[in-house]
Amino acid sequence: QVQLVESGGGLVQAGGSLRLSCAASGRTFGSYAMGWFRQAPGEEREFVTVTSGRTYYADSVKGRFTISRDNAKNTVYLQMNSLKPEDTAVYYCAARRGSGSYYVTDYDYWGQGTQVTVSS
Questions:
Q1: Cα(81)–Cα(98) distance, rounded to whole angstroms?
Q2: How many CB atoms lie within 10 A of CB 47?
Q3: What is the DSSP string of 41-96?
Q4: 10 Å Cβ neighbour count for 111?
Q5: Separation of CA 9 from chain center
Q6: Alpha-carbon distance 110 to 103, whole Å?
Q7: Which residues contact 44 (CB under 8 A, 6 or more apart)?
Q8: DSSP letter at 19?
Q9: Which CA distances in Å does 7 have to 22, 60, 76, 113, 114?
Q10: I need a labelling partner for 5 at 20 to 30 A (CA). Which of 70, 96, 116, 120 fits?
């Protein structure tokens, strides 16, 4: 079992940066694939990035966002640079046992989300 808590969201101007954190509880953090997803109002939750040995990014964020993890601290991060208004969404971290996945339904554990708002 793992519990996830996101933090670091906020309001930023276009072109700015934020770093999101996801703190996990549990003894087997290192055995989980960790991902970030986002959801804007009226839209489906969409894949952003995942790390599980290798890292993968959605085309919409590649080159601007970076995922990293510190297993000793049970924390995964999302560094977001060159933010755009279309990045505005609630950002969720998620965990699943084993390999990474692009699909929401493959993840077993979710945080409550943190709001990121990017103004023009």
A1: 29
A2: 20
A3: TTS--EEEEEEESEEEE-TTTTTTEEEEEEGGGTEEEEEE-S--GGG-EEEEEEEE
A4: 21
A5: 11
A6: 13
A7: none
A8: E
A9: 6, 22, 11, 8, 6
A10: 120
Question: What is the C-alpha separation between 114 and 89, in angstroms, rounded?
Answer: 8
**H/E element holding 3?**
strand 3-7
Residue 113, number of CB atoms within 10 A of its CB: 18
DSSP per residue, 24-46: EESS-GGGEEEEEEEE-TTS--E
Per-residue pLDDT reduced to its tens digit, 73-106: 889 999 999 999 999 999 999 999 888 999 999 9
Q: Tell me which DSSP letter residue 20 carries.
A: E
State how beta strands 114-119 and 10-13 pair.
Answer: parallel
For residue 27, what pLDDT band results from cuts at 50, 70 and 90?
low
- The C-alpha torsion from 96 through 63 and 58 to 70, rounded to 10°, is 0
d(CA 60, CA 36): 13
Question: How many Å from the N-terminal Cα to the C-terminal Cα in the chain?
Answer: 40
